[in-house]
């Protein structure tokens, strides 16, 4: 009697959209899917339940072409072709924590973790927290602003720390069209731009000791006009610079990651400030503009108010407008809302912008210290002068923020005086009782009100087309404008002793100790400038490290047949795997032979100088479905549809019987490598002729026939085509050829020894 089927099915679903990519979480029983509609979905293993979905939007994009999990399973990265962006998404809720743009569209992503241990690294991992001891915790952004600020606003979860993740180095490797390969440390900071690889990337694998990077690319050969012929090459890039400077690379990347998160934080604080500002404008616009528009006398609003201020008596018209349009209640409300918006902008500058930029200064200064330690960091491309410029740029930003504080301060004074004065005037008009303490108006207050009137109600026609028509509330707003225009009314520096001192001193003008000050520019402008300078100094290591990468091996594998073009590229073999313990890269791929697609396993050592015996082998599956054919016939009757490494010892395959007959079953099976790499026939080592493609010399490759004992299961009623597995969690997900039908399995269920023995007896 046949044994029970292996692997337990735990869920099955028909999905509404075609799935184009799937990836299991490395740490939990979650699988991420991307579909044709551009959604990213997260499903649980149990019953294939949906946890959340992230619909496509204009900020991210619509065409997902790659997915990768951070090795700790807390962050999911996906790449979008149409917007050329990479989004890092929180696993707990569908929210983008960080995103960046790349130059070309991404076709493959691989996120790995460094497993090397060394005393230097351990001491660095432990010292990571020293910045937390020295720097105050960044205050959370206020909740009441739009979604942009969501990231840092949940008080409980420290989202910045979640983004930074574990201090052990992990690297997100991106591959794209026309030889584009970039490595991002911690998924955020670009640590290398690799050049010199031809073709668009189909698979990437960076070894966990950072010694080598395997790449599989597809090259379009358009010399033949009718059929575009594609061949794959597996190139091994030697990345030994990264591995030999591992502690330095880790430390530098960590600093850069801190800096990126801080820039993000400052950007969001500014966004919140702009929103608070918009709030003021709307209030002013709705109340006061109407008020001014309905005025039809020749005198200007400013004059009318001035008259009220000086003689305490308003023209009838102004009186009517104030009482009917504005009303006492309305005035009170307007005053309160404007005051609260101003003070929230002030709070954001004091607590958020300043603490963010101080932390930036701290990390940049540390980085500068690293750059000056030449023997360790010079070869990685850290450059002290660039960092020096970045520090200066941050200084200028802090100066600008302080200037804004002063402007807000004076605006608030005038505003308060004006509203208080107008409130009293209106109470008098309506002949209400005026409290005596409101009635006291000092000379100073009168000056404030007069200032306010000249500033805000001056008839400046060039301001009419901006927001805040007819009156000018640009004093604060001009700092928050994201435009390159100069400030409309820059602060008045006449008679400022420090400025005069600077002007007259020859030496201080050029002094590197003084941060340059841009009196004509807005806060946004200075922030953009700061970002540019910092980007510039973070850019250099990527180029230097990228140039150090050189190609060690290059092999042409095979041509693809045109027929399979309909399948989404994301699933097509070849598949790369890195065995961390023995430092071997494996490549799995299939080649057609007598209309049977046969699976090949190629293995190479990550240390490019060492070779591995049995560099390449083909695998045949002996007959194990006893029902279909009589025993005498050819045993080679299975085509391999998809193959993935399950763990270092096993490959999971989807097979189909290749004999044309009814009821062709698809089979999910586990192929142990131990049955492939046996110690027999070591003598027939395949000699590679590098002038030819592999498929032209496949006859020379030795083939192993493997009989699967009980590690297989027939997939009934399903045209299974693709499989995605996770050996750590021992799960697999099979997808049908129409890309809509999913089945999930737990792969090793039989943990009870007794059951196994019984089963073995049964099978024997």
Automatic annotation (TrEMBL):
UniProt pathway: Protein modification; protein ubiquitination
Record's protein name: Anaphase-promoting complex subunit 4
Keyword Transmembrane helix tagged: no
Keyword line: Cell cycle, Cell division, Isopeptide bond, Mitosis, Nucleus, Phosphoprotein, Ubl conjugation, Ubl conjugation pathway
GO biological process: anaphase-promoting complex-dependent catabolic process; cell division; protein K11-linked ubiquitination; regulation of mitotic metaphase/anaphase transition
Residue intervals of the Anaphase-promoting complex subunit 4 C-terminal half WD40 domain: 576-746
PANTHER family registered for this protein in UniProt: ANAPHASE PROMOTING COMPLEX SUBUNIT 4 APC4 (PTHR13260), ANAPHASE-PROMOTING COMPLEX SUBUNIT 4 (PTHR13260:SF0)
Entry GO terms, CC: anaphase-promoting complex; nuclear periphery
Record localization: Nucleus
UniProt source species: Fulmarus glacialis (Northern fulmar)
Keyword Chloroplast: no
Predominant localisation class: nucleus
Physiological role: Component of the anaphase promoting complex/cyclosome (APC/C), a cell cycle-regulated E3 ubiquitin ligase that controls progression through mitosis and the G1 phase of the cell cycle. The APC/C complex acts by mediating ubiquitination and subsequent degradation of target proteins: it mainly mediates the formation of 'Lys-11'-linked polyubiquitin chains and, to a lower extent, the formation of 'Lys-48'- and 'Lys-63'-linked polyubiquitin chains. The APC/C complex catalyzes assembly of branched 'Lys-11'-/'Lys-48'-linked branched ubiquitin chains on target proteins.
Domain named Anaphase-promoting complex subunit 4 long: residues: 236-432
